[in-house]
Amino acid sequence: MLDTATAQPTTHPLLEAHRATLEEAAQALRDRSYYSRYPESPSPRVYGENAPQDGQAAHETTINKDYTALKDQPGTGESVGDEKSPYGPTLGIRYPRLDVEAAMAAALAAMPAWRDAGAEVRAAVCVEIIDRINQRSHEMAHAVMHTSGQPFVMSFQAGGPHAQDRALEAVVAALEEQRRIPSSVTWEKPAKGEPIRMQKDYRIVPRGVALVICSNTFPTWNAYPAIFASLATANPVVVKPHPRAILPLALTVQIARDTLEDAGFDRALVQLAPEGDGGTLAKDLALHPAVKIIDYTGGPGFGTWLETEAGAQGKLVYTEKAGLNTVVVDSTDDLKGMLGNLAFSFSLYSGQMCTAPQNVYVPADGVDTDQGHLSAEEFTARLGEAISRFNADDARAVEILGATVNDDVRSRATDVPALAASLGGSVALDSRPVTHPSYPDAVIRTPALISVEVDNLRAYTQECFGPVAFVITTEGTAESLQRFAGTVRQHGGMTAAVYSTDEDTLEQAREAAADAGVALSENLTGQVFVNQTAAFSDLHGTGANPAANAAYSDAAFVANRFRVITSRRHV
Predict the structure, then answer these.
(1) For 442-476, where are the alpha helices, taking DSSP H only?
(2) 291-297/316-320 β-pairing
(3) pTM of the model
(4) Of the candidates 260, 264, 217, which has an alpha carbon nearest to the alpha carbon of residue 130?
(5) Each residue of 172-221: pLDDT tens digit?
(6) What phi, psi does 110 have (nearest 5°)?
(7) Tens of pLDDT, residues 442-492
(8) Cβ-based burial of 220 (10 A; exposed 0-12, middle 13-18, buried ≥19)
């Protein structure tokens, strides 16, 4: 007989305050239904009449100053910081350099009380942290905008409420996995006479220090699932921001530390490890003996090194790297809707998203549409026209395109003819510069299209991060699907899309996506785009192809962050 009755949950003021939220969010995760705790509109009607002005003022108080809110971390006495806004201004913020050995010791000392608080209390404290971050979403939006180059509304949404929803999703995913483990059971085995009885207690224990290595382009959105999955499973967290995007994570860590202290726990459960450009801190931290979990978002070079070198030391390594996001075009009954949807998808944040489409496969004999049959060349021209039309008004375009984040992106986008020539392709749509009305120093470029032949694998089997995409002519849709599955299986991909009016073709696309291990969007023509995912419903990444070995936030992303220790005795 198995008695799965668990012990009474530990009491804590925040437990009752956030119990309803945890249950609502957990149910949404089970159902994969729409759920959002944090409103995505920056409107004063939602966040308060003075929220926009207060957020901007709070951001401006950080510029050209020492970030003193983290001065209580174990430090070396030095300060670091090289951030410059992709929109032009130098931020001039100096952050205290972390004393790594002292920080690790402090994190390990903070861990037992956090572990013993129990999963329910940890989850409630995490919700309180996220709620407090949400209250400063306007300030966070400016921090994200001026480190990542995202346009303001996107910075608010993706860097604020959408990231916060993903954080909450990770918390409840972790809580659900921990709830599967009873705290104590009476175990009985039939025997001659009286059954054999044992009391078995189960204790959830953390792995150790969790290191989160963050990206430049989505400093909060990509980091929050990892930060909160580890924190909710009792692991202290060291956040290693990208050198050019420290401020959003500094603000996050500051809020987390203050909340933990207010809740009766050690501030050292969350610490920030900033550095300037060109440093080796991420590598040093990854190999530190106290670090047992590593989450990484970024390029494939360092991601593969982490998987190989840190993984060889027995550390858990979760990575999101580069991939070839694909669109297969077969036919459509809504050409206008399809072209508009794709134009937005290519333009959003100048393609500087791990989910942005890059490779578009078009059959050589053309595409059937509700506006007549289009040859491959005509379809490519129509797609280019849609992109140009969408970005025709500079003042409107900058609010979608944002600013280019680094020199690599800028160099590709500013000389597309040279890039096309080097890859053996031809320019179907050149990129043009866009002037920002408020930030004239920002480098902003519209998307470009390069036409290539399907056998020119060198051109399109590497990620071309930024506002450059490839239109690839194939013998037909069957070859398009074959190439799609093969390139993603070999090189990775975060997203895929297909357009077809034929159900058999759609079923073949589903099979190709399953074979490639990538999520598929079908016939998107409205206000849902291939480069967007919904928390609690869409899994971000699959872990089934080289682009990422993890998914936000499935059971595999959270369950291995804790272990279960059993203590048993005769009754």
Answers:
(1) 457-460
(2) parallel
(3) 0.95
(4) 260
(5) 999 999 999 999 999 999 999 999 999 999 999 999 999 999 999 999 99
(6) -80, -15
(7) 999 999 999 999 999 999 999 999 999 999 999 999 999 999 999 999 999
(8) buried
